[in-house]
Each structure stands twice: as structure tokens, then as C-alpha cells.
Amino acid sequence: MLPTTNPLRGDDHLHVRILQAEAIDIGPWWRAREVRSAYWRLYIHDRDGAWLATGTGRYLLAGGRAHFVPAWVRFDCHCSETVRHLYVHFDPIGLPGAVVRTMFPKPFAVPLDTHQLETARRLEDQLRLRPLARPAQLCRVKALLYECLAPAFDRLPEAQAARCLGLIEGGNAMVPALRHIEDHLPEPLPNALLARLCGLAEDTFIRAFRRQIGQSPGAYVRERRIAQAAQRLQAGDEPVEDIARAAGFANRFHFTRVFTARMGCPPVRYRSGGRA
What we know:
Jelly Rolls, 5-stranded antiparallel sheet, 2 domains, single chain
């Protein structure tokens, strides 16, 4: 039996949840302003012609590459000619948003080899024939995502890669609180409870959480609630009141105020602008 080298010390908690995948043609009508989402986007185009305007400048969506737009990045989208547009909306489970923002603060590209380009083309052809509804299609979308994301994680500095691995495999002291938050978003999540789950005094927990995750426990909970609500808004026609309640907000008015402050538009308008 061959020896195992560098096994994970805990569980593997890095997964991607696919929210939407589609292949369409875009052109000069592909325009949207102030787009901001709680999920990631993958874009693969067959040619140049589309670009994003972000806070750091113009980002060209060059053909034949995998382009990632991390969650919470604000951008405008533009296109000057007809382009074949394969896009995937996804949520990387296991990495807190504040941590991801320090690792991937802006859109970035990953080169695609011949095999990956052919895989993307086949997937695009399948999605044009029928929507993402089969397990086999879902597997292919995830396989392509993992292949494209791997080089991005390879490029991380050693300290960031170690921080990432600690969260993924459960070695970070804040993981019990993070997992409880994810599983109990509709419920009250006081600091005292989260601190007890981590075996820490409340003040110590708050300081440690901010240092290791990059934001306070309250800000993290609020962000996760908004993220869950944003995904449900674009997943169907569920009433806003029900989405607000399921995400842990007291009522629609409180939810609308918090959501608008974070996402830049009210929930109803956000729901109508998800196809980009």
C-alpha cells in the first residue's frame, strides 16, 4: 500500500454550489450598470468584444479564457459585437466572503488549454439544447469550474493558501461558529452562543473572529443572510416576505433597507437583473 502524503487534517469543506449555467449569444444589448452579486460568475467567450467596467478600470473579457468575477465586486457590463457567452453563477462553500475578498478582490482570468476549451464548447452546445437539469450536466459544469479555479488557488501567496486550507479542512478555531451560522441563518445568532461553540469567552471570540475572518460576527451574519436572500430572489418567484423571513430578517421593510444598502438596489429590482 502506497503511503499517504500530506493528507487533509480534517474534512474537505470546499465545494461549489451551482446556481445557474447557461449558454447564450450577447451583443450591444448586453448592458447593465452597478451589477453586484453575492455569488461568483464564470464567463467563457468564443471571441473578444465584451468587457466589464470596475472600480479598478476596464477589464477585457478576452475570448478563449476563463474569466472569474468574485462575489461582491461591483461592475458595469458592455459588449460591442455578437459573442457566444457561456456563464455560470456559483457559490464556493467553505470560504467566508471577507476572506475571499482579500484573496480575489477583482475579476481575473485563467488560460484554457485545448482540452478545457473543447470541454467548454461541448458544455455550451449541451446547454443550448436544454437547460441545466440533468445530473451529468451538473457534474460537467462543476468539473470545468474546479479545473479553472485550481490555477487561481495555485497563484495564492503561501500565507493566504495556508489560511484558506485552515478554513476548508476545519483547522481554524472559528469554523464551529461559521458552520452553525450557515445552518441556522433564520434563527437568532448572538455572539454569546457562537463564542460558546468555539470554546471562547465572548470578548475573546469577537476579537478572534474579526482577526481571522476579516469582519465582526454581526457583519458576517448579515452578509450571509443577504447572500442567501439574493440567491433565492433570482431562483424563482418566491414572495419577498418569505425570503426575508427565511434569511432571518424581522420583516420585509428591515430586509429591504439592509439589502439595498449592501447590494445597491432594492430586492425587487435585483431579482429582475440576474441574467448577466
